[in-house]
Structure formats: structure tokens, C-alpha cells
Specification:
This protein is of the alpha/beta class and 388 residues long. The chain is 43% helix and 17% strand. The protein has 15 helices and 14 strands. A hairpin with a 2-residue loop joins strand 2 and strand 3.
């Protein structure tokens, strides 16, 4: 196994070796790293629900009533009442006919794309789509055409040239996790209508964040939910774990019968379902967390602009491009010494030459938190040098 050590050395030589940071205590705006407090600006816990007392209470009650594990896959004996109730809550929240739970966004995207497509079908995929969509495309064995990021004209070109007789699908993130930009869904849906292609949206980073009531990028653009297939996760803005496909009743049935990542895995623990339902209830009934998040996005964006960094973010994701991996991680460590935890992102998560610090905001961040992050950046970065 000497090749393992050599492979690690090669990764380290490129400045791409990763390590794990251990968080002590709960996921919150402030965490402890090796006994030292740090303000977290790299969590996807956008609404601050990961340690919300209502979710904790819902979890305690579910533990007492349903126990710990589900015992089996959904199609054996692992389909419990809370799974069905959560799916009904999701469908109502997303305004779709039905929903089907998966154990993660990765499971959901792989299961969905391998169910929808086969060798005779065609997928048109944005070049910056999430890895789970890319892997789902590969596993589907469909023909895949990659269009330039958010380039509607390039996509139209590819659709016009396509002579496939099989089914066609346009696949995109709703909010792109590394850049914080939003897919041009209205244009994609229009192209889907014109060329008879179904639009699939990974709304993991849009659900709970985008739209007037946090229902996601589909709501943000006023698109009929019946015109697209949506995947989203429960582990980001909703603060829990797991994922789902929001879709028609017939597609739910098909996925349930053919999606291998659904069939061949133990179902989510019932306690997770109970907490996820409580998170959806909070998002549906309480507007303050989403309002707080949007105020923080506005303040942080204005603060970066004063530092010379132009932003147009509608999502709580702010990529500060550095370029090379080593200076990116050096900057990450420097900020950490000032109590600011913003993780450096390197290839293969992002393309070569685009390593960055990725700041993400939470509804629970205070004005003082944002000021602390902006002041640390101002004292650390040479903005003229690193301005894109």
C-alpha cells in the first residue's frame, strides 16, 4: 500500500491536502475550535435552526415515542408514520403533488438521474453543477452535454443541434453553492418547453433561503412547481439531515420502485423526520429568521463593496477569489487567529485557479459578528491585488 502514501504526498505538494477541524459543542454562530471561540462563516445552517430549541424538543418527543433507528429500508419494515408525515409536509411546503425522502442530497440526485434517464436519453448539465449531479449524470449512462455556466445561448445551441430521439433533461443547481449565483430558471424552463426537455433543479442551497417565503428558487422566480422537478436537502437552511425529491405522484412511485439509492438503504431515523417537520413549520409560520438572514446578506454585501469587492448576492454565499490553493489556506488560517472561521475552498471542489474563501451567512449572525468579519478582512487582504 505504498501508493497510498505517495498519493497523499502528491496531494500535499499541490496544496490540496485536507484535514478535519473538530467542532466542540453545538452548531451555532460561535463554535469552539481547540478550546478557542470562533465566529463561524462557513456553515450552511443559514437560518440558524441546527440547535433551535423547538427542533430539540421535537426530537426528544420523537425519541421517546419512536425510538432511535428505523430498522430497515422503507420497502421492508422501515417505513414509519413520521416518514409519511414529513413527505406530506414537504409536498405542501413545496406546493407539489408529492415528495420522496432520501438519506442525503447525494443519494437523491443519483437516484433521480439514474431513474429518469438511460443510454438513449440526453442530459444538458451546467458546467458548475454540484458533484452529486455530475456523478448522477455519469451513473445514468445517458449522453451528457455540458453547457457553459448559466449560458442560456450555449444551452439553446446544444438543444438545437441535438438529434437524440430519447428523453431530454436540463439539469441545474438553483443556487450554486460555491459562487452564490442563481440559475436563470425562467429561461431554462422556457427552453424546456420549446425543446421538450424536463428541467431538474437541485435547490439544496435555495430552499429556506430564496423566494418570498423561503420555498426556493422556483418561488423566487414565480415558476409553477409542476413545471420542474426539485431536489432539496433538509441539512442546510432547515438545519437537520436528509433530502427529498418534490415531484408528481407518479414520479414518486417510479422513484420508490427503481431508485437504487432509495431502495437499498436504511431509512432516515424517525427523530430526524420529527425535527425536519418542526423546521418546516418554523419556516412556514415565522418570518423573522428569513428576514434576519436577508438583512445580514444586505449588510455584508454593502460592507464588502466598501472594501472594493463588488457583489450582487441574493443568496448568503460570498466567494472571495484568491486563485491559488496555498495563499487561500494561509489566509484562512490568518483569519482564524482573529476569531473568524471562513473555510478555504480548493480544487476539485472548484475549478483550477479559482481557490477562494467562501463566506456563508446565518440568520443568527449579529451586526457585531458581521463587522468583526469585515474588519478582519480589511486588515488582512490586499483588495487591489485580489480584486477579480
Amino acid at each position: 500500500m505504498e501508493w497510498v502514501a505517495k498519493a497523499l504526498q502528491e496531494i500535499e505538494k499541490k496544496g490540496l491536502k485536507r484535514s478535519l477541524r473538530e467542532i466542540e459543542g453545538v452548531q451555532d454562530r460561535v463554535v469552539m475550535l481547540k478550546g478557542v471561540p470562533a465566529l463561524v462563516f462557513c456553515s450552511n445552517n443559514y437560518l440558524g435552526l441546527a440547535n433551535h430549541p423547538k427542533l430539540i424538543e421535537a426530537g426528544k418527543k420523537a425519541l421517546e415515542k419512536y425510538g432511535v433507528g428505523s430498522g430497515a429500508s422503507r420497502l421492508i419494515s422501515g417505513n414509519m408514520k413520521l416518514h409519511e408525515e414529513l413527505e406530506s409536509s414537504i409536498a405542501q411546503f413545496k406546493r407539489t403533488e408529492a415528495a420522496l425522502l432520501f438519506n442525503s442530497g447525494y443519494h437523491a440526485n443519483i437516484g433521480l438521474l439514474t431513474t429518469l434517464t438511460g443510454p438513449s436519453d440526453q442530459i444538458f448539465s451546467d458546467e458548475l453543477n454540484h458533484a452529486s449531479l455530475i456523478d448522477g449524470c455519469r451513473l445514468s449512462r445517458a449522453q451528457v452535454s455540458v453547457y457553459k455556466h448559466q449560458d442560456v445561448d450555449h444551452l439553446k445551441n446544444l438543444l438545437q443541434k441535438n438529434d437524440s430521439t430519447g428523453r431530454k433533461f436540463i439539469v441545474t443547481d438553483g443556487v450554486f453553492s460555491m459562487d452564490g449565483d442563481v440559475a436563470p430558471l425562467p429561461e431554462l424552463v422556457e427552453l424546456g418547453r420549446r425543446y421538450e426537455a424536463t428541467v431538474v433543479v437541485d435547490d439544496a442551497h435555495g430552499t429556506g433561503v430564496m423566494g418570498e417565503t423561503g420555498r426556493g428558487t422556483v418561488e423566487h422566480f414565480g415558476i409553477d412547481p409542476g413545471e420542474v422537478i426539485q431536489m432539496a436537502t433538509l441539512g442546510k437552511a432547515l438545519g437537520v439531515f436528509g433530502a427529498f425529491i418534490a415531484c408528481t405522484k407518479s414520479l414518486r412511485e417510479l422513484l420508490m420502485n427503481t431508485a437504487r439509492s432509495f431502495i437499498f438503504t436504511t431509512s432516515l431515523p424517525p427523530v430526524v423526520c420529527a425535527m425536519a417537520m418542526e423546521a418546516i413549520k418554523i419556516l412556514s409560520e415565522e418570518s423573522q429568521p428569513l428576514q434576519n438572514l436577508r438583512q445580514n446578506i444586505k449588510k455584508f454585501s454593502e460592507g464588502l463593496s466598501r472594501l472594493g469587492w463588488v457583489t450582487q448576492n441574493r443568496a448568503p454565499i460570498f466567494p472571495l477569489l484568491i486563485g491559488d490553493p496555498n495563499p487561500t489556506m494561509a489566509l484562512c488560517e490568518t483569519l482564524l487567529t482573529q476569531g473568524i472561521y471562513a473555510q478555504g475552498i480548493r480544487p476539485p471542489t472548484v475549478p483550477e485557479g479559482t481557490s477562494r474563501l467562501r463566506f456563508t451567512l446565518m440568520a443568527t449572525h449579529t451586526e457585531e459578528d458581521l463587522d468583526a468579519a469585515l474588519n478582519a478582512l480589511a486588515s488582512t487582504l490586499s483588495w487591489q491585488q485580489h480584486r477579480p
